[in-house]
Model the fold of this input.
Amino acid sequence: MPRIVLPTGARIHYQRLGDGPDLVMVHGIAGNLAVWHLHLVPALAERFRVLTYDLRGHGLSDTPPSGYTPDAMAGDLLALLDALEIERPAVVGHSYGADIALYHAAARPDRVREVVAIEAALPA
Done:
């Protein structure tokens, strides 16, 4: 079970599959990385190097007592990208994962190639 220890000390569970340009998929609240793996990851891994991960407090990642704001979660994403030496991935997020992807892109536009936000909860 691959895990990365973030600078905050939280251990984040992740999986990487495929070859090609980097693509990161961020799940929503109450999900985990498995939501992407039934159909999407097998198809996308034929063209991309796909990274999925469990947000803090989800799946096999640690559950710290705080740090669940979109800013903090975007910080987790950036730390994960740094640890795995991923420079400018495309990021796909669903629901709260879309918010995290958008916060990440707003804070660090130099570290994202593009964002696909599915059902983002942010107000227009």
